[in-house]
Protein 1
Amino acid sequence: MIYTVTLNPSIDYFVKTDGLNEGEINLVNEQSIVAGGKGINVSKVLKNLGVESVATGFVGGFTGDFVESSLRKAEIGTRFIRVEENTRINIKLNTGKETEINGISPAIPASALEQLEEHLLANLETSDFVVLAGSLPSSLPYDFYGQLISSIRKKGAQAILDSKGNPLQQALAHQPFLIKPNHLELGDLVGATIQEPRQAAAYAKQLVNEGAQHVLVSMAGAGAVLVSKELAAFANVPAGTLKNSVGAGDSVVAGFLAHYTRHGNVLEAFKFGVTAGSASAFSTGFCNAKDIDRYLPEVTVNLIEGEEG
Ligand SMILES: Nc1ncnc2c1ncn2[C@@H]1O[C@H](COP(=O)(O)OP(=O)(O)OP(=O)(O)O)[C@@H](O)[C@H]1O
Ligand SMILES: O=P(O)(O)OC[C@@]1(O)O[C@H](CO)[C@@H](O)[C@@H]1O
């Protein structure tokens, strides 16, 4: 089974306006209100690709009710822990440029943390993958992802982490199966400005040396890099018009995992993941299998170092 853990979910309020005039009334042309958060998005894309998952994390208040019920409506398995304060609301404003205003996370009591760990670990099997994705609610210790990954690995299961900064740095030593920073997040971590794929590969190698099994660095329209102990590879992205980048990174993770759990080949999963990211970036919602099939022939993976196999 695949479990996705979203410690800090959201309602994403997508709005489209002709522009933004500060200090004035701005009218919305288009809007949509959806359950969000990185792990939840991974579950949604997995569902689109015919792969079952169980979404877990913390939800609270009327906003949390909405998140849980919309996942149920989408027939995605849920096992959320309830907290008292409201799940946050994140505004995704598209004026031609994309602007995000992310809300304040609810407080997470220690009892809820324990409950989450218990529920997650109780039924974990060695063939399971756990996707840990997104920010930590501000009341959680920064090493919480590291702690969770350590417990997941003790159960013999694999963890995938999409996070940044200290929580990511701290988690590396626990040997996550895959991490997916974008080039800016990788740059922050290693204290460098990353402009091109070979540079990204060199810095990603440092994270492999620190414990990550595979590092997938997405570079938006400039392609992506995958680095493991034995190899480094580059994938280009297909041509298309960017419609909405929110959740494109989550689609990369979902695409990678959907392919890897079916076929077990890291480089092919890399190619499929990057294509899924672009297919989502080129649509207003998330990609499905047909979208990916359409763009897959445009994506090529080339080794920068090492041998396939
Ligand atoms: N301009 C683009 N053209 C083609 N593909 C793109 C473009 N922008 C993003 N993508 C796709 O989306 C993936 C993720 O984008 P990015 O590197 O910005 O990661 P991210 O910052 O994690 O994404 P997100 O915007 O979801 O937070 C890329 O690997 C690529 O597949
Ligand atoms: O604040 P975080 O947890 O880092 O990111 C949250 C978020 O921006 O990420 C998703 C897109 O990747 C959105 O659904 C959600 O609003």
Note: The pocket of 1-O-phosphono-beta-D-fructofuranose (ligand 2) is lined by residues 8, 10, 12, 36-38, 41, 90, 100, 102, 134-135, 246-247, 249-250 (CB under 6 Å).
Protein 2
Amino acid sequence: MTYTPVDNAVDSSSAARQGAADYPGLDDWRSLPIAQQPSWRDHPGYDAAIAELSMVPPLVFAGEVDILRDRLAAAAQGKAFLLQGGDCAETFDGATADKISARVKTILQMAVVLTYGASLPVIKMGRMAGQFAKPRSSNDETRAGQTLPAYRGDMVNGYDFTPESREHNPARMVRAYHTSASTLNLIRAFTQGGFADLRLVHHWNKGFTSNPAHSRYESLAREIDRAVRFMDACGADFEALKRVEFFASHEALLLDYERALTRIDSRTGRPYDTSGHFLWIGERTRDLDSAHVDFLSKVRNPIGVKLGPNTKPEDALALIDKLDPEREPGRLTFITRMGAQNIREKLPPLVERVTASGAQVLWVTDPMHGNTVTSPNGYKTRNFDDVMDEVRGFFEVHSSLGTFPGGLHVEMTGDDVAECLGGADPVDQEAFLEGYESVCDPRLNHMQSLEMAFLVAGALSRKD
Ligand SMILES: O=C[C@H](O)[C@H](O)COP(=O)(O)O
Ligand SMILES: C=C(OP(=O)(O)O)C(=O)O
Ligand SMILES: [Mn+2]
């Protein structure tokens, strides 16, 4: 990550923590309706876990969060594009150097494709270093006549189907914090330490299997290489190409965790949730009078809200009033996840009414969550064509309304998994038997992710 120097690290002294405890309104959420929380308040380890998280150093700094808000403000004005990607659910076991580096490389590759194709700065953001908690449709899961609590992400319980593993355990929040810290440490090393140097644009493609998107990327990398060598010969300064900014984000689902990591910034005296740079509220927890909306309205981080096909324009306007009362550019992002069938009908009234209200939110498409189906052989999957169709619909709607399609939010991995159907080197349902690894929703694999980046680059440069 490259950030302009900050001398305003969040103050994690005990005085600052006390300040966070007393900050007006920061605990109002505790008396509001709250959905999708673990049942662990009476667990013997609960108080100790909260006490520990209240003492640990912040994962991100307030100055970085402010820089991100500026970057997102540029995107809301059509001057940058947000690329946000990563697992549906990160796991503790999956936080290995190989997997993290493959995901970061894939996001960097996608960003290069987008930047080169669209001639726009791309804000790079992982669903990483904190994406450990999941809202579920059902509280329970039944297998072979046995019913146990549903898996809710490694921050809450284990994926193994045993009563011990499925118990909600607050000590997992502390492990999630440490796993986020080591993930973020590696991301910072990769993106600052030379690995993200644009002159290594070919190198990021190494180790991935050859396929149509891989070859297309190679040709683009050759073009970039040529341009870089030309600039080198002209004596250009490549300092700016050596490092990239990379931001961390996750769904702010477990308010015990988010609240415990909230600190008062010593510069401004305002609360920042230091668990990640960007936090979003999910489709299942975005009720206006809910605990989630209230808590996130009180922290200074840029906030996203998922909007599904049942969102009414009035809901979107009320969310703006609550989460962005000052109409601050970069503060609020709407991540629409309508489904390919719905987007062309459901998105226009939202965009029209929000635009007419004068609010300047950032519009991002999540083409994954409205397109989930079950394959005939029983896997939760998505058709790559549906995902692509929702992306196309998103661009069409914004193009016809004269608004800016500002970003892409995807569940993806750098690994060669088989979880979504289709793509140029098509995945079929038989491949799921060996290649399905996700513990929650199906992700685009490395090739499908690159393919999507080429499609979006084309749409952004109005060539498609
Ligand atoms: O990631 C999103 C949700 O957690 C997920 O789609 C819920 O899925 P479920 O219907 O399997 O609970
Ligand atoms: C839970 C998620 O999405 P949504 O809230 O849109 O269903 C998610 O992004 O994994
Ligand atoms: Mn998901």
Note: The pocket of erythose-4-phosphate (ligand 1) is lined by residues 88, 134-137, 440-441 (CB under 6 Å).
